[in-house]
Amino acid sequence: MLVRRLTVSQPTMLETLYPALVEAVQDTQSATTSPAYKTFLKDVEFTATVANILSQAAAGTSIHPPNVLSDGSPIIFCVDKKGQLAGTVATTGKAIDAYDECVNPLTREDTGLSASQFTGTQFITICPYFRTSGLGAVSRDIPRPGHCLGVDTKNKFNTDRLGRAGPSMTHWGMFVLLEEIIHLYLWPEEQKRGITEHLEVYDANKALELSVRDAPMNAASYVLYIASLYGKCTDFPSPAGT
After folding, report:
1. Given this model, what pLDDT does residue 222 score?
2. pLDDT tens string 43-57
3. Rounded-to-integer distance, Cα 196 and Cα 221, Å
4. Which pLDDT does position 181 carry in this prediction?
5. Is 48:54 a contact under the CB 8 Å cutoff?
6. 23: exposed, middle or buried (Cβ count in 10 Å: 0-12, 13-18, 19+)
7. How confident is the model over 144-188, as pLDDT tens digits?
8. Rounded Cα–Cα distance for residues 124 and 113 (Å)
9. Any residues with CB less than 8 A from the CB of 209 and at least 6 apart, and which?
10. How far, in Å, CA of 159 to CA of 31, rounded?
11. Dihedral of CA 91/97/103/105: which sign?
12. Within 10 A of 128 (CB to CB), how many other CB atoms are there?
């Protein structure tokens, strides 16, 4: 995986993310998958698909044609002005400049987007908001040990143990990068299924409600799964009917 123009803390995110991905691959290949897998990625029916996506992500496998920048493996690129990375949307053919996704070209204000993935390409872009929001700061880049979602008396996820708002793991820089990497490797499977728009369900409780077929197509479900393994989390809502 080629990393271009990342700040000092961000390679550490990738270095930490690699063993977390390897652990997830090993989990999917075990005789009995973990409670985290059963919670977020559901049934074993699609375990081979999940394992393949995670294995490719861990290895930085090339799934796109080579170009002048790389052999086709993922490229993570920080943008801070127009013209640095432009192309067309794979599903629509619409012209796009990565910076316009980050900063509204009319108001010049941040769109609130931290990172994005050019669908159908090997490019992952990091927006200025990633840095200005603090996601790239040392205090927000990598979760601390034991960072897990809690479960309330209604058998639902509530706030995490660090007290941040809402049942989400996406406020950590490492997991923002992970989501975009997963989007990249989900693309071939999306094509097989005729999916033209990413499924994006971030809330853990809503992710619980996804079907067996849809859960492996939701990049945030992979984030929640790997974040739970990484945090050594053991508290999950009981399956329906138990």
Report:
1. 95
2. 888 899 999 999 999
3. 18
4. 94
5. no
6. middle
7. 777 888 888 888 888 654 444 455 566 788 888 999 999 999 988
8. 13
9. none
10. 32
11. negative
12. 17
